[in-house]
Specification:
The complex is a heterodimer of chains A (249) and B (321). Chain A contains nine helices and ten strands. With 249 residues, chain A is α/β, with parallel strands linked by helices. In chain A, the strands form two sheets. A six-stranded mixed sheet of chain A has the order 6-7-8-3-9-10, sandwiched between helices. A four-stranded antiparallel sheet of chain A has the order 2-1-4-5, covered by helices on one side. In chain A, strand 1 (4-15) and strand 2 (18-29) form a beta hairpin. With 321 residues, chain B is an all-alpha fold. Chain B has one domain (2-243). Chain B is built from 15 helices and two strands. In chain B, helix 3 runs parallel beside helix 5 (115-134) and helix 3 (60-77) packs across helix 9. Chain B starts with a helix and ends in a 6-residue tail after the last helix. The chains are: A alpha/beta (249), B mainly alpha (321). At the A-B interface, helix 2, helix 3 and helix 5 of A face helix 7 and helix 8 of B.
Chain lengths: 249, 321
C-alpha cells in the first residue's frame, strides 16, 4: 500500500438531511494522474473540500501519505503537501501576481527555513516565485496587479500559486471551465509537465471530457454522492452506469 | 534606507514630544494634543485587525473603556488621595493586558463569524461590557467615579504635561508595532485573509492564529490608550467611557487615512482629530461627529483608499514598499 498517496475510505458528508457523499472510497497513487468526473451536484467539489479540509467529513477516514488527517485544519493539510486550485479563481486581489505566490512560498515552502536576514528571505521568495511564473509562462506578469488579469491568466495564477506551496498532490478543480480549446491545451500542457517533470500527483476535476480523457490514467465517476465507476478513460465512457448518470435512462 | 528614515522619524518625534511641555506653556494645547494622540493610538489599534485583516470591529469603545476602568479599579484599591503617583505605570500595562485578554477571548468566540456577523458580535460585546461596568459598584457603577490624580507627578511638573508625553510615546510605540506587523509574515498573512480567507487558508496561512494575534494586539493597544483616561477627565462614568465617538472615530480615521498601511491611521487621526477639536471650540461641541460622518461618506465614495490611496494615485508610486 506504500504507493498510495491519498486514501479516502468510506467518506460520508451530509448537509442536514441531504447526503452529499455516501461512503465514497477512492485511492490515488503516487505520481498518478487521476480524473474525477460526475454530473453537476454529484459531490466532486464536496469530496475535494473534505480532502482539503474546508469541510469536515461526517464519516470515514482520509489518509494522506500515511497520516490520518482527521481534525486537521486546511493550512496544516497544505503543509503536509495537499494543495488545490479553486473552481472560481480566488486571487489575493490587493497583491501583484508575484506577491500572490509569495504567500504560499513564505507560509509553506520556506516555512522553518532560517534566513540570514529579512532581505535574504525576500530574495529567496522572489526567486522561487519567479521560477514558477517562468515555467507557467507568466514571468512578464509578475508585477502586474492580480485584479487586472484575464480569465486564462487567473487560471494559471491559481495553478502557479498552488505550485508555490510545493505540493505532493495538486487538486485542480475545474481549472479549464470556460476556456477556449487552445487555452485548454495550454493548461493541459502545464499539468502534464508538473506531473512528468516534478513528479506531482494530480487530481483533476473537470467537465471538459476531452481534457480529462486525455490527461487521466484512471478515472472515478461520482453520481449523487456515490462512486458509480472506476476505470481507465477508454473504459469508463463505455460504462453503463456512467452513461446513465450523464444521459439518463 | 527606508528603515533608518522611519527610526530617525521616531527619534525626532520623541524629542519633540519631550520638549513640547517646555515650549507650550498653555496646558489647553497639551490637552487638545492628548486627544488627537489618543485617536492615533485608537485608529492604529483598530487598523491592525480592521485594515490589515479586513475584520471590522465596532466594539472599539468597549476595549478602550476596559483600559480606563482597569485604571479606575487600581485607583479604587487605595484610600482616597492615597494613590502613589507611580501607580500610573501599573495601570497602563494592566489596562492593556485586560483588554488584550478580552480581545483574545472575543477572538475565540467570534472569529469563526465572517464579515458583518463579526462586526455585530463586537458591537454586542461593547454593550455587554458597558452593562457589566454600569452594575459594578466598586468602580463607581452608573454614578461614575471621581478620580483625583495624586498630588505629585512622576518626572514632570503637572499631570497635563505628563499625560501628553505619555500619550505621545504610546502613539509612537503603537505606530512602530503596526509598522512591524504590516511588514512581517503576520501582516502579509492578514492581507491574504482580507483578500480571500478560504484561499489564504488553503495556501497554508494559519488564519485563526493570525486573527487571534490581530485581536490580541489590537485589544492591548486599545487598553493602554484608555488607561490614562481617568486622570485626564477626572470624572468617569460608563456612558462617556463607552461612548460611540471612540468606536466611530477608531473606524473612520483609518478609512479616511488609508487602511492598508500604518501611515493611514496616523494621517486620518491627525487630520480628523484636529478638525474635530477645532470645530469643538470654534463652532460647537456637537459638530465633531458630523464632520466625521460627512468626511467618511465622502471618502468611501470618492477615495476608498483614503489619503494614502490618493497620494499613490497622484504621485504615481503605486507601491511604496
Amino acid at each position: 500500500m506504500s504507493d498510495v498517496l491519498l486514501q479516502c475510505s468510506g467518506v460520508v458528508k451530509t448537509f442536514g438531511g441531504f447526503t452529499a457523499l455516501d461512503q465514497v472510497s477512492v485511492d490515488v497513487k503516487k505520481g498518478e494522474r487521476f480524473g474525477l468526473i460526475g454530473p453537476n451536484g454529484s459531490g466532486k467539489t464536496t469530496l475535494i473540500n473534505c480532502i482539503s479540509g474546508a469541510l469536515k467529513n461526517d464519516g470515514g477516514t482520509i489518509t494522506f501519505d500515511g497520516t490520518d488527517m482527521a481534525g486537521m485544519a486546511p493550512h496544516q493539510r497544505t503543509r503536509l503537501g495537499i494543495c488545490r486550485s479553486f473552481q472560481i479563481p480566488r486571487p489575493f486581489t490587493s497583491m501583484t501576481v508575484l506577491e500572490n505566490l509569495a504567500i504560499p512560498f513564505e507560509y509553506v515552502a520556506l516555512r522553518g527555513h532560517r534566513h540570514a536576514s529579512p532581505d535574504a528571505e525576500a530574495k529567496a521568495v522572489r526567486e522561487g516565485a519567479m521560477a514558477i511564473l517562468t515555467e507557467m509562462g507568466m514571468a512578464d506578469k509578475a508585477s502586474a496587479p492580480s485584479s487586472g488579469l484575464t480569465q486564462i491568466e487567473l487560471r494559471k495564477l491559481e495553478l502557479a500559486r498552488a505550485m508555490a506551496a510545493k505540493p505532493k498532490l495538486l487538486i485542480s478543480d475545474e481549472a479549464m471551465a470556460g476556456l477556449s480549446n487552445s487555452e485548454v491545451d495550454e493548461i493541459l500542457d502545464i499539468l502534464f509537465r508538473l506531473n512528468e517533470q516534478h513528479g506531482i500527483t494530480i487530481v483533476m476535476i473537470e467537465h471538459i471530457m476531452r481534457a480529462v480523457m486525455r490527461f487521466s490514467q484512471r478515472v472515478v465517476c461520482l453520481d449523487a454522492g456515490k462512486k458509480i465507476a472506476e476505470a481507465t478513460p477508454d473504459l469508463i465512457v463505455k460504462d453503463p452506469n456512467v452513461e446513465r448518470a450523464y444521459l439518463g435512462e | 534606507m527606508k528603515i533608518s528614515v522611519f527610526w530617525i522619524g521616531v527619534a525626532v518625534a520623541l524629542v519633540v514630544a519631550l520638549l513640547t511641555p517646555h515650549v507650550v506653556t498653555n496646558e489647553f494645547y497639551l490637552r487638545t494634543a492628548y486627544t488627537v494622540l489618543q485617536f492615533v493610538v485608537l485608529a492604529t489599534a483598530w487598523n491592525i485587525l480592521g485594515g490589515y485583516g479586513g475584520y471590522v470591529n465596532f466594539g472599539s469603545a468597549g476595549f478602550f473603556a476596559i483600559g480606563a476602568y482597569s485604571a479606575v479599579f487600581i485607583y479604587k484599591l487605595f484610600p482616597l488621595f492615597q494613590v502613589p503617583d507611580y501607580m500610573i505605570f501599573v495601570m497602563l500595562p494592566l489596562g492593556g493586558v485586560v483588554a488584550a485578554v478580552i480581545g483574545l477571548g472575543t477572538g475565540y468566540l467570534t472569529l469563526r463569524l465572517r464579515g458583518v456577523y463579526f462586526s455585530i458580535a463586537t458591537l454586542a460585546l461593547a454593550v455587554v461590557l458597558q452593562t457589566l461596568v454600569t452594575n459594578w459598584h466598586f468602580v463607581g457603577g452608573a454614578r461614575g467615579a471621581s478620580i483625583l490624580p495624586p498630588q505629585t507627578v512622576p518626572i514632570f511638573s503637572t499631570w497635563g504635561e505628563f499625560l501628553f508625553v505619555l500619550m505621545a510615546i504610546l502613539a509612537i510605540a503603537s505606530l512602530a508595532v503596526a509598522r512591524y506587523i504590516e511588514r512581517s509574515w503576520i501582516g502579509r498573512g492578514l492581507a491574504a485573509i482580507r483578500d480571500n480567507e478560504e484561499a489564504a487558508e488553503c495556501m497554508g496561512v494559519p488564519t485563526l492564529k493570525l486573527k487571534l494575534i490581530g485581536c490580541t494586539v489590537s485589544g492591548f493597544l486599545f487598553g493602554v490608550a484608555g488607561a490614562p483616561l481617568p486622570y485626564y477627565v477626572n470624572y468617569i462614568e460608563p456612558v462617556s467611557a463607552f461612548n460611540l465617538v471612540y468606536a466611530v472615530n477608531a473606524l473612520a480615521m483609518p478609512m479616511i487615512g488609508g487602511a492598508t498601511t500604518w501611515i493611514g491611521p496616523l494621517l486620518g487621526a491627525v487630520v480628523l482629530g484636529t478638525a474635530q477639536e477645532v470645530a469643538r471650540v470654534t463652532i460647537s461641541s456637537e459638530m465633531n461627529l458630523l464632520i466625521v460622518g460627512v468626511l467618511l461618506v465622502f471618502f468611501v465614495i470618492a477615495a476608498p483608499d483614503g489619503f494614502v490611496g490618493l497620494a499613490r494615485k497622484y504621485l504615481g508610486n503605486r507601491k511604496s514598499r
